[in-house]
Amino acid sequence: MKDMNEGYVTADGRQIGGVIMEMKNITLRFGGVVAIKDISFDIREGEIRAIIGPNGAGKSSMLNVISGFYIPTEGEVFYKGIKRGPMKPYQVARLGIARTFQNIALFDGMSVLDNIMTGRLTHMKKGLMSQAGWWWTGAAAEEHENREKVEKIIDFLEIQNIRKTPVGRLPYGLKKRVELARALAAEPKILLLDEPMAGMNVEEKEDMSRFILDVNDEFGTTIVLIEHDMGVVMDLSDRVVVMDYGKKIGDGTPDEVRSNQDVIDAYLGVAHD
Amino acid sequence: MFYREAGDFKTSYREDSQTFPIKFDRLRYYAVLVVAFGIVPLFINDYWANAVAVPFLIYAIAAIGLNILVGYAGQVSLGTGGFMAVGAYAVYKLMTAFPDVNIFFHVIIAGFITAAVGVIFGLPSLRIKGFYLAVATLAAQFFLVWLFNKVPWFYNYSASGQINAPERTVFGVFVTGAQTSAMAKYMFCLVMLTLVALVARNLTRGTVGRKWMAIRDMDIAAEIIGVNPLTTKLSAFAVSSFFIGIAGALFFAVYLGAAEVGEAFGIQKSFLILFMVIIGGLGSIFGSFAGAAFLVLLPVFLKNVLVGTLGWPTDLAAHIELMIVGGLIVAFLIAEPHGLAQLWRVAKEKLRLWPFPH
Ligand SMILES: Nc1ncnc2c1ncn2[C@@H]1O[C@H](COP(=O)(O)OP(=O)(O)OP(=O)(O)O)[C@@H](O)[C@H]1O
Ligand SMILES: [Mg+2]
């Protein structure tokens, strides 16, 4: 394995930094159900880290622990070397952690543009009173600055033509893309993607893979990705954590994981959709 | 003229985020302002002011307030009447305690006081939703009415238990009291409504509005993108109650002149304004206007046509009004939750594409 704190350069020339987030002995219980059992792993700055495993392995739960939505029953989360205390999800968002959901969680009553604009909330500081004044108090100026950033993301993800469409009317694949746009609008340090390609056709998957690589490459965003499609995982990720029944059974580069006997037995051997 | 956006290209985000992005809409909006401020005051008389114009202006303010809470932030409230009463009693206490201060400021301060009360009664929304929240706000309604009846300090120990608005002027013109002209009442309420609508529009088109809608559409996702549910919900209660308080203050001081709390601000008021919001359109400022206009005009219209022209008995006309409103509520709730505002939008959409619908 590479050295813990030093960065390195990948074969395709991307700079990977030191550890930005570390999960130490995480256990998560829901009543009697143990969703995560004593798992430790780290995430390096700038890398694409995949979490794979069969259905019910605890992957989404792990993502929820990282995003602060679940507080682990046991164990600790370190962010930039500092132990993270119990936090509300909206406070975690302000640390620069954004995510998408396995079951799309967009705001259906709002347009695509407004949905993506909500991603900028953590960057918009004008309070209620200055919002009420709009032109006079600089709220309009702030709105337009942020709108410009959002427009760049809209261009980047090639969704210009649906800007004003209410999100509820979009097909599934586009919804996934809008959700990614909303997460990107936050300009996160770490981006958590829960099955961003589930239910997509080959072409849509290729598009999405390209976007993920571009985001990582252009903005240096650290990405944690849950995905079932092994081809995609092997292509995209720098390192992979493999989970099964809440336990970690493998951790390493795609090649290392692929040749790990436990993983082959527990996961790759199992027929999977 | 044609209703088109063709040739009307937006070259900046500023232009694109205008309230009325289509030129024709903008012109019509200015026309409405000119008529409302320049022409109506010249012709308004006591009948039109008291039966239609003034109640419409005040109910529109209240409907905008309730729409912020219900339509934008997705929190149910049946306490509107009670909050209007807070505005009314606040303005009454202020008017009698500080007779030298201009009533305009009293009305605004009454709004702030109602906002504070609204925040207190909004606290349960942090734990409960939907039906349970509705019941909690219903309790607020009854509690507030009871309070204003029970504690004589609120009505300055008057023998009747009523509150009476003293005479007050703005720029030397009476806006409350018996000597007030129809035009003065109308103009004072119109200015208030214009300010309220502007502020509401500014709040709903920016960050605050998006936070409210995010909480309404999916509170868990909202929290994960950085929305603090506590401050967001309470800000919706505050802003909503602020407007409703202003409406209550005007309803008492300018429109009624004298009020008994249970009669003027009872549960029927809460329902009336909720119906305005539902019929007009949830989550739409224009809808608040449309709903208020509709429910103010409907009884006037029915009375003139059924009683005046056809000679039907008054109580029959009143029953027919109830049936129409009830039917419409059900119809809108089932078929078009976005109300008249949506019907209007769809009509415009059709018009924009006409005559080539594809
Ligand atoms: N909120 C919850 N309450 C109770 N049990 C839960 C909860 N969330 C997850 N679980 C349980 O924890 C286990 C792991 O679930 P999780 O959703 O993390 O799996 P996953 O790896 O994401 O699966 P999938 O591939 O199907 O998305 C499952 O047994 C699930 O039933
Ligand atoms: Mg999952």
UniProtKB/TrEMBL annotation, chain A:
Lineage of the species this protein comes from: Bacteria, Pseudomonadati, Pseudomonadota, Alphaproteobacteria, Rhodobacterales
PROSITE patterns listed in its UniProt record: ABC_TRANSPORTER_2
Domain ABC transporter as annotated: residue spans: 21-270
Pfam families: ABC_tran, BCA_ABC_TP_C
Name the record gives this protein: ABC transporter ATP-binding protein
UniProt keyword list: ATP-binding, Nucleotide-binding, Transport
Species of the source: Thioclava sediminum
ATP-binding among keywords: yes
Record bears the keyword Nucleotide-binding: yes
